[in-house]
Amino acid sequence: MTAKPVKKKQFLLTKEKPFTALQIITSIFTALAITFVVLALVSKTPVKDFVDLLTYPLKSRFNFGYVLVKMVPLTFAGLATLLYFRTGLFNLSTEGVFYISGVAATAIAVNPSILTGNGVIDPVLCILTAAIVGSIIALIPGFLKAKYGANEMVISLMLNSILFGIGFWIIKNFLAKQGVTGQSSAPFEASAKLPVIIPKTQVHVGIVIMAVMVVLVYILLFHTKLGYTIRMTGLNSRFAKYSGMSAFSLFMVVHLIAGFLGGMGSAVELLGVYNSFTWATLPGLGFTGALMAMLGKNHPLGVLGAAFGISYLRASAQLLANMSPVIDIKLISIVEVILTLMISSQYFLRKWREKQLLKEEQEHE
Amino acid sequence: MNNIIASFFSASFLFIVIRVGIPLLFASMSAYVASLSGILNIAVEGIMIFGALFGVYFSALSHSAWIGLLGVIVIGTVCSLILAFFTMKMKADAAMSGIALNLFASDISIWLLLIWTGSKGTSASLPSKVLPTINIPIIKDIPILGQIISGHYFLTYVCIALAIFVYILVYKTPFGMHMKACGLDADAALSVGIKVNKVRLISIILSGILAALGGAYLSMGYMPIFSNNMTASRGWIGIAANAVGQGNFLIVILATFVFAIAQGIVNNLALMQLPSELINTIPYLCVMIGLIILSVRNYQKARKNK
C-alpha cells in the first residue's frame, strides 16, 4: 500500500466542492451499476445491452444530435423550476405551463393569417406568445401564494390537470385539421418551424436559445440584486422584507420569469421537433424539470449538465428501443430515481467524510 | 336534462360515488397518516401505481387474488421503507424523493409491462385475478340502502374498516397523540420521550400500505387489468384532500367525497354531448377552489389576530 498519495487524495476529497463531486460520481456509478443488474435480470445479452446504452449516442452524428435535441426542453423546465426552488417555493406548475403554452404557440403556428411568412419573425412571434401565456398562467399560483400563502404545490398540481383539460379541448375543437377529428393539431406552417442548424441531425436553433437562457439565468441569479434577493429569500424566508423588496413582489416576479421560461421551452420544443401538436397527455417535462433542478443543485450550469446526462441516456434508450427487446426510454427512470434519491441525501457519504476529517485532524496534531 | 338531474338523486348515483370515492379515500388516508406525523409523502401516486401493477403480477403468478393482495401490502411496505430510509435516515429532500418515486413508478411500470407482456398499454395478456365482490347478506335486501352499500368490491369494505381504524388510532389512542406531536414539533415530542423516528416509521409504512391498497382497488376490482397511467392523478387528489382537511380526519374524508361526488357528476355529464375534456377538469377545479377559499380564510384570520 502506498499510503502517501492516497492520503493526499482523500484530503482533497473532503473539501466542499470535491466532496460534492465525489457524491455525484458515486451516485452515477451506483445508478449505472443497478441499471446493469436490472438488465442482467431480464436480458439475454446484458453486457452488450449495457455497453450499447452507454455508447450508442457516440456512434453517429445523428445520434449525438438527438441527445442535444432531447436536452433542450429538460433544460428549459429545469431553469424554470430552479428559480422556484431557489426562492424556497415548491411549485410544480411548469408541467401545466408547458402544455398550455404549447397550445398557445400552436394557435399561432397553424394560423397563416397571423403569421408573416418570414422564417425569423414567425418563430419569434410563436415563442413570445407562448412565453407570455406561460407567465400569465404561472401568476395564478404565484398570486395565491404571494397574497394568501396558499399551498403552491397542491394548487400547481391541480392547475396542471385543469390546464391539460382546457388545452386538449382547445386543440381538439379549434386547432385540429379541418374535417379531421383527431387528437393532434393541424400541421405547423413551415415558416413557424425552427430551422435545423447542424446538417444530418435534428439539432435546431432552439439549442442556441437554450444556451442564451442558461447564461441569462446565471447572470440573473449571481450578478443582479434580484438574483441575490432570490437566493437569500430561499435561505431565509424573511430576507426579502429586509432587502427592501416585498415578499409579494418577489414571488410575483419569480413566477413571472419561471412561467416565461417554461412557456418559451414549450414553444421551442414544439417548433423545433414536432410538425403538429400531438401531446395527448401531459408531457411530463415539468416533473422531469424539477429533477433536473435538483440534480443540478439549483445551479443553471448544473441543470445544463444534468439535462445533458439524462438526455444522453434517454436518447440512447429511445434509439435502441427498436433493436432491443428490453431497452426502452422508460428504463432510464431507474437511473433518474437513484440519482435523485442519492444526490438529495444530505447524509450520503457523510460518515466517511467525517471519519476522514477526524483522521486529518489527528495527523495534524 | 331532467333525467340527468334526477339521476343525481338515485341510489345508483350514490353507489357510483362510493365506487369512485374509495380509491381517493385510500389516497387521502395515505397522505393523511404521513402528514399527521410530520412526513411529507407525495409518493402516494407512485405507490398506488406499484400497488396496482404488482397486485396484477403477483395474482397472475400465484393464480390467487389473495396472494396478489399480500404482494400489494409487501410492495406498499417496501416503497414506504425506501422513502423512509432516504428521507429520515439519509435526510434526503422529502418532496424531491417523492417526485422521483412518482416518475419512477409511472415509467418503470410501463417498462415492466413491456417486459412481462410485450405491450406498453395493458396487462390484458396476464391471467390476473380479481378480488371478489361482496353482497352483504341481510342489508342487500333492504330497498335503497342495500343498493347503495351492498355489492361493492372486497377492498371497499376494507377501506371503510381502515378508515374507522385510522380514526380510532388517531383520536382514541396514545399512539395517535404521539403522531400529532411528531407532526407539530418533533423536537418537543422527542424531549418528552416520544420515539419520533419509530412513530414516523410506523406512520409511513401505514401510509404506504394504504396507497398500495388504493392501487390494488383499481387493478383488481374497479378494472380487472393494469393499464398504463391507470391511477390518473388519484394520488394527487388524495394529497389535495389532505391539504384541505388541515389535520382533521373527518374533513379529509368529507373533502374526498366532495371530490368523488364531483367525479360522479362528471361521469353522468359525460353521457350528454358536452366536451369531456372540460368536464373532466371540474373535480380538480373544486379542489383548487376549496384550497383557495381555505387559504383566503386563514389569511383573513391571521390578519384579524394581528
Count of separate DSSP helical elements of chain A: 15
What structural class should be given to the helix and strand makeup of chain B?
mainly alpha
List how many beta strands of chain A DSSP finds: 0
Radius of gyration of chain B: 20 Å
Helix content of chain A: over 70%
Distance between termini of chain B? 50 Å
Largest interface: A-B, 49 and 46 residues
Give the SSE string of chain A: HHHHHHHHHHHHHHH
CATH class of the largest domain in chain A: Mainly Alpha
Low-confidence stretches of chain A: 1-10
What's the multimeric state? heterodimer
Let me know the average pLDDT of chain B.
Answer: 89
Q: Using the 3D structure, state the CATH architecture of the largest domain in chain A.
A: Orthogonal Bundle
Number of domains of chain B: 1
What's the structural blueprint in terms of helices and strands?
The complex is a heterodimer of chains A (365) and B (306).
Chain A (H helix, E strand, L loop, with lengths): L2 H11 L2 H27 L3 H10 L5 H26 L7 H16 L11 H28 L3 H24 L30 H18 L1 H11 L3 H4 L4 H27 L11 H11 L4 H21 L12 H11 L6 H15 L1
Chain B lengths: L1 H6 L3 H26 L7 H19 L2 H25 L4 H24 L15 E2 L8 H7 L2 E2 H19 L1 H11 L1 H6 L4 H27 L11 H12 L3 H21 L6 H4 L2 H24 L1
Antiparallel strand pairs in B: 1-2
Helix pairs in contact in B: 2-6, 2-7, 2-10, 2-11, 2-12, 3-4, 3-5, 3-10, 3-11, 4-10, 7-8, 7-10, 8-10, 11-12, 11-14, 12-14
